[in-house]
Design brief:
This protein is of the alpha/beta class. The protein has a single domain, classed as NADP-dependent oxidoreductase domain (TIM Barrel), CATH 3.20.20. The chain contains eleven helices and ten strands. The strands form two sheets. It has an eight-stranded parallel beta sheet with strand order 1-2-3-6-7-8-9-10, covered by helices on one side. Helix 1 packs parallel to helix 10. The longest helix is centred in the first third of the chain and has 15 residues. It is globular and about 60 Å long. The structure holds NADP nicotinamide-adenine-dinucleotide phosphate (NAP).
């Protein structure tokens, strides 16, 4: 989709010197898209470092000030407030991409407000995170349009074929979060025959092959890494191509296994 780069860097739980080093390595190696969220608590740090030319995706929760503390709250007014807070922290307006972080009661109203905020020019692209076909259809019925973006857990063991096909049919751009299932699936993928063959034939690593598979599907993967070598490795995926048969062989690994939002300890 126009304005959305083919790959980005996920910034969940990165702060301070680690965040600074990751952003430096990413900017040097050519990343232009960065994914954060109100919940990650690092929008302000990111806003202070990234050049205005970069593309930032953030995710909002509604916020309501009770006079004593901020409460998570999902109504139209609090959505608007959340967007302006994010813009202030990120030091950019319009914000490139804003997503509703979760499914919650009242999400159609919240999305309607986000659409209004977009029409006022405060956000370029709007969307949702971890929504299914049912919720995307509800938004369409209520607001007359589908979201621009849907962020989904996507990796070879959870490739969400129904919802990604629905997104493709309806012009919804897919951002692939947790493309390595928080790193947990990389050893197992390395033992899959298709990955062993591809590592041998392309000289690329398993993470690079997963990211290339996402990109060829038209999804934007946002791998997270705090390791400068991995950050550089993950963007070196534009000098080779997977064949249709190789893409299908990776698709066939799907077993609808979600690894959740965080690493379960
Ligand atoms: N919308 C949502 O609800 C939601 C939920 C989860 C995540 N997200 C977004 O998606 C981003 C990525 O997802 P994620 O954080 O769950 O995990 P992920 O990207 O699937 O995996 C990250 C893990 O993989 C490792 N890794 C990265 N590149 C590697 C490489 N080339 N070789 C070996 N290991 C490598 C990292 O370790 P090193 O640091 O050592 O490289 C890290 O442990 C998040 O940062 C966030 O922006 C969104």
């Amino acid at each position: 989709m126009e304005g959305i780069p083919q790959i980005g860097l996920g910034l969940f739980s990165l702060h301070g010197a680690a965040l600074e080093a990751a952003l430096k390595a990413a900017l040097e190696s050519g990343y232009t898209l960065f994914d954060t969220a109100y919940k990650y608590g690092n929008e302000k740090e990111i806003g202070a470092i990234l050049p205005p030319s970069s593309t930032v995706c953030t995710k909002i929760l509604g916020l309501q000030y009770t006079g004593r503390k901020w409460l998570l709250h999902f109504d139209r007014q609090s959505i608007r407030k959340s967007v302006s807070q994010a813009a202030r922290k990120l030091q950019r307006s319009p914000i490139d991409i804003v997503l509703l972080h979760h499914i919650f009661r009242g999400y159609p109203d919240a999305f309607a407000e986000l659409l209004e905020v977009q029409r006022e020019g405060l956000v370029k692209r709007i969307g949702v995170s971890s929504y299914g076909i049912k919720q995307l259809e509800t938004i369409r019925r209520k607001c007359g349009v589908y979201p621009d973006v849907c962020m989904l857990e996507i990796h070879p063991y959870h490739s969400s074929p129904e919802v990604t096909a629905f997104c493709a049919q309806n012009g919804i751009h897919v951002m692939a979060r947790s493309p390595f299932a928080h790193g947990q699936i990389l050893p197992e993928l390395g033992r899959e025959r298709i990955f062993q063959e591809l590592v041998a034939s392309t000289g690329k690593s398993v993470p690079q092959l997963v990211l290339r598979w996402c990109i060829q599907h038209g999804w934007t993967p946002i791998p997270r890494s705090a390791d400068e070598r991995h950050i550089r490795e993950n963007i070196a995926v534009f000098d080779f191509e997977l064949s249709a048969g190789e893409m299908q062989a990776i698709d066939a690994l799907n077993r609808d296994q979600s690894y959740g939002v965080f690493i379960k300890k």
